[in-house]
Amino acid sequence: MAPPTLSQQAEVFRSLHAAGKPLVLVNAWDAVSARLIEEAGAPAIATTSAGLAWSLGYADGERLPREELVAAVARIRRVVKGPLTVDLERGYGRSPEEMTQLVGELLDLGVVGLNIEDGVDRETGRLVPSQLLCDRIASLRTLAARREVRLFVNARTDAYFAPQPGPQGRFDEALERARQFAAAGADGIFVPGMVEIGEIGRFARAIELPFNVYAGYAGVPPIDALAAAGVRRVSLGCGPLQATLGLLRRLTVEALEKGRTGVMTADQVSVRELNALFT
């Protein structure tokens, strides 16, 4: 049987956002994490921008060089079978044109989904103007139409991470931006930082697009509660890598300070299982 085409994988990925059980994305940071996640039953693979950067020796925040981003995605795409979506942060480009050049390379690799965000201006502490992301979303729609693939654009707002507006205005700011991003052509809306279940449900009811909640830290409601509130996508983000690195620190301290290796050997994946991921 021939492997699925890019358009076919794009349609599969889009269908995973249908009403019902949310799409849970356990975000990967390299080829082996992606294969392990897929082998465990994940229907799609998503990258974590922070995880990719950290694993390659860079801080988060588009400090990872574009060519290293593309190379990392290529390694993941080579080993996974299902749909792949990539966290593009703000677009890795000073203009929509620079961004679409990069996205064209990702489409060539077989990527069918993207996360793209507005972000917080480091100097002012305010969200960047929403029109900047709207322009980029529109450029992505044009590129996808030209390539004849229904690229899934998940538009993220950092309204809950910005010092301004204050807590009382964040919901309204996020909702207004979500509506602008939808009008520009977004396929989904992502609001990390929103954790109160009543607020999550109110937001999900206020928008027509699939709503994505971030669950990479403590305090987020369980997935069944999120589903009942209308959430259609749940991302673990860099949480899995943070947990993995926490384990690495524990087993290192245990070996260096206590002379034991019990933490390391308690739940290892075998060499046979890991080799089998790639054969």
State the CATH topology: TIM Barrel
Rough outline: globular
pLDDT below 50 for ≥5 consecutive residues: which ranges?
none
Report the helical percentage.
40-55%
Q: What is the SS-derived class? A: alpha/beta
* Total beta strands: 8
Distance between the termini: 18 Å
CATH class: Alpha Beta
Proper CATH architecture: Alpha-Beta Barrel
Which sequence of SSEs, written as H and E, runs from N to C? HEHEHHEHEHEHEHEHEHHH
Overall mean pLDDT stands at 96
How big is the Rg?
Answer: 19 Å
Strand order of the largest sheet: 1-8-7-6-5-4-3-2
Biggest pleated-sheet summary = 8 strands, parallel
Q: What's the domain count? A: 1
The CATH superfamily appears as Phosphoenolpyruvate-binding domains
